[in-house]
């Protein structure tokens, strides 16, 4: 089963991800509402139509966020008002849902996701058989991540809007990370370095793939990235261990250096070389958290073009909240 391929069959109890971390199963509406309210917030739960009602909720909890998989067999209206203490990322694995979150109204499903803001009245209608993968993340934690990674000013509220296409590019990569999170059941709840790093990556992934008021670029809802950016990023990912210069990258893409820089500023809010550095840091995290015999921080850094180990360690710590050595130690190979 993969999240990217949406190979989930709604209604089959064993088909839901996180089957090893069940929270509850119920065919009673009142019981389902109470059990969900215990981990989210109080709300109204109103089945619609004549379909048989059943609810299932699997949940894996960490320090600042939890990963959840939920399904309602019947078409269901959920009215929590304002969530207050947390943001809620929603990605339907099957079916569709309509979300009303203050003035932010959108449809999710069919490869599209969305985030519910905590300070606006919310009403959701899940279609019959809708099964959703959700990340519940503490408001303060995500806003802190937005301040450190996206320059969110003190006192300003992080606000998401619209639906986001997750079928390609960074969206697809983020689903791959989520697939890892749900396949490694228990990692988030153990409180170790690996779990903390995974939480950090999930929060950064939310900020990079879901549109919000601190995104450093303006696109039409669901609009694609500039072609030059997509081509350049594809080339970067395929050649992370090779020498890549701005001049060479522009030549590979077929545009001038100035045009490539402008495309990245418009599409990513960052320079091409900054994006390349972040891609290499993410590869370093993968290599260090899944080491082979003889894996070392120095070798990983050098292979990815980080020849100044002190600077590599500082960039890594800022991105993941720990040092490369701590990642390797947490994987048991240091």
Automatic annotation (TrEMBL):
Signal peptide boundaries: none
Pfam family, one: AraC_binding_2
Keywords tagged on the record: DNA-binding, Transcription, Transcription regulation
Domain of life per record: Bacteria
Native source species: Celeribacter persicus
InterPro entries membership: AraC-bd_2, AraC_XylS_family_regulators, Homeodomain-like_sf, HTH_AraC
Name this protein carries in UniProt: AraC family transcriptional regulator
PANTHER family tied to this protein: HTH-TYPE DNA-BINDING TRANSCRIPTIONAL ACTIVATOR EUTR (PTHR46796:SF12), HTH-TYPE TRANSCRIPTIONAL ACTIVATOR RHAS-RELATED (PTHR46796)
A Gene Ontology molecular function term of the record: DNA-binding transcription factor activity
SMART domains in the cross-refs: HTH_ARAC
Residue ranges occupied by any HTH araC/xylS-type domain in the UniProt entry: 230-330
């Amino acid at each position: 089963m993969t999240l990217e391929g949406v190979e989930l069959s709604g209604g089959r109890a064993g088909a839901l991800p996180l089957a090893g971390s069940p929270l509850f199963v119920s065919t009673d509406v009142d019981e389902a509402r109470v059990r969900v309210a215990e981990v989210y917030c109080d709300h109204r739960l109103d089945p619609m139509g004549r379909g048989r009602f059943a609810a299932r909720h699997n949940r894996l909890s960490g320090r600042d966020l939890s990963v959840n998989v939920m399904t309602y067999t019947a078409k269901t209206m959920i009215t929590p008002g304002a969530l207050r203490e947390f943001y809620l990322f929603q990605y339907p694995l099957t079916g569709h849902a309509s979300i009303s979150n203050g003035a932010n109204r959108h449809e999710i499903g069919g490869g599209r996701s969305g985030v519910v803001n905590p300070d606006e009245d919310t009403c959701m209608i899940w279609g019959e058989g809708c099964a959703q993968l959700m990340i519940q993340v503490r408001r303060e934690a995500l806003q802190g991540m937005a301040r450190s990674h996206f320059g969110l000013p003190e006192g300003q509220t992080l606000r998401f809007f619209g639906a986001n296409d997750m079928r390609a590019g960074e969206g697809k990569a983020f689903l791959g990370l989520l697939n890892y999170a749900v396949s490694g059941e228990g990692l988030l709840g153990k409180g170790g370095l690996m779990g903390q790093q995974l939480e950090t990556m999930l929060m950064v992934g939310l900020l990079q793939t879901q549109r919000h008021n601190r995104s450093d670029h303006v696109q039409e809802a669901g609009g694609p990235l500039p072609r030059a950016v997509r081509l350049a990023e594809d080339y970067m990912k395929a050649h992370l261990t090779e020498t890549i210069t701005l001049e060479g990258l522009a030549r590979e893409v077929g545009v001038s250096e100035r045009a490539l820089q402008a495309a990245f500023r418009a599409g990513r809010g960052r320079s091409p070389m900054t994006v390349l550095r972040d891609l290499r840091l993410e590869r370093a995290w993968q290599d260090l958290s899944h080491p082979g015999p003889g894996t070392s921080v120095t070798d990983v850094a050098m292979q990815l073009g980080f020849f100044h180990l002190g600077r590599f360690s500082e960039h890594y710590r800022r991105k993941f909240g720990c040092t490369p050595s701590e990642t390797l130690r947490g994987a048991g190979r240091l």
